[in-house]
Amino acid sequence: MSVLKDKILETATDLFHTRGINSTGVDTIVAVAGTTKMTLYKYFGSKEDLILEVIQKSQQDFQSWLNEKLNASSKKPSDKIQQLFDYIEEWVSSPAFIGVGFIKASAEFPNEENPIHQLSSQQSREFRQFISKLAKDASIKDADGLALQLSLLFEGSVQAEQMKRGSGAVKYAKKAAKILIDGAIKA
Amino acid sequence: MSVLKDKILETATDLFHTRGINSTGVDTIVAVAGTTKMTLYKYFGSKEDLILEVIQKSQQDFQSWLNEKLNASSKKPSDKIQQLFDYIEEWVSSPAFIGVGFIKASAEFPNEENPIHQLSSQQSREFRQFISKLAKDASIKDADGLALQLSLLFEGSVQAEQMKRGSGAVKYAKKAAKILIDGAIKA
DNA sequence: AAATAAATATACACACCTGTATATATTATA
DNA sequence: TATAATATATACAGGTGTGTATATTTATTT
């Protein structure tokens, strides 16, 4: 991947989160990235394409990071799901955290026919399936149900953190997750 | 309140939710409301003022509805908090549900200095305090902690419902809420 | 050094946005 | 009926948005 394309993606990701997607023009993006519109439109067919790539890459990066953390920490499936929110907390609390792409995008593009909304919806679904797999591996009966509940805590936490940085909401989400997981294991 | 001002508020509320706030121009609002820009700017100083009033009124309406429901159903404080998510489910599942103003607004206006963001943040806080009061009345020890957790489930549910209408996420939020409330009562 | 590719600079077409100015029509009140 | 208040119609100023056309400069390769 070209270094310039990468720089544009990175800049757009940052601006979309700090100023909003619709409020960020391509002129601003290229100015901050230190390049020109011609270059941007060489790598991305349209602003919509750029948005789609930003959302995709953000989620990919997070998923990769999370996977590595979980695999490095333990081999036991029951440990993994218990540690899920430890890493979510680490990630959300880090200074580099700027939000979750698919959550913001679905708010700015509420129409379900919109490609950006559809990609957001798909990624939310995939993340829930990821949690569900963790639960299944840990021999939890209603894995899908628990996964949905944990994803609600996750999305709620991110929302809260976006509303007010340093809210500490994730700490309580973690406690709630532990209670729900313990309950689901016993069932 | 003038009937026209009311009509504009109602139309704007609907369009903001179905198309997004930034994506909805005042021209569209007055066209759908069946009036003109001159009238809109007579009742609202600016588009920002209109947005603020829309968010304020939406939350007020919801809070009033919820309060009535809770007061009508039972006098026992411990019942009230247990029934909270019954009514949230009823509200979110109703065909008239279009989303929560302060959640969408905070996504479209991420800058914490922005008046719209600040109002959103304030309303999120007020709703959490409302839940906390329910918990305190029910003699729950860590009322603030539980209120935060329940608000995460609430915001997560709304987010999920926005992502995909009819997701049924609230049903699982309700189950999770019951577990968390029961746990908090025992503690 | 010559030829090819990549990036820049600049200008512009066209659409849409918010907000206002001005003149006209409609409705309510006295 | 005359006066005042309310709403409409229309046009426009000034800004910003996406996307493209054209020409020039820089960097890479042969």
Uncertain runs of chain A: none
Distance from N terminus to C terminus of chain A (CA atoms, Å) equals 48 Å
Give the oligomer, counting copies of the same chain as homo and different chains as hetero: homodimer
Q: What is the number of strand segments of chain A?
A: 0
Task: Specify Rg of chain A, calculated over alpha carbons.
Answer: 18 Å
Largest interface, counted with CB-CB under 8 A? A-B, 44 and 44 residues
What is the count of helical runs of chain A?
A: 9
- Helix fraction of chain A, binned, reads over 70%
Tell me, rounded to a whole number, the average pLDDT of chain A.
97
Structural class of chain A: mainly alpha
Order of helices and strands of chain A: HHHHHHHHH
Basic shape of chain A = elongated
- Bin the strand percentage of chain A: under 5%
Query: How many strands, which pairing sense, and closed or not: the largest β-sheet of chain A?
Result: none
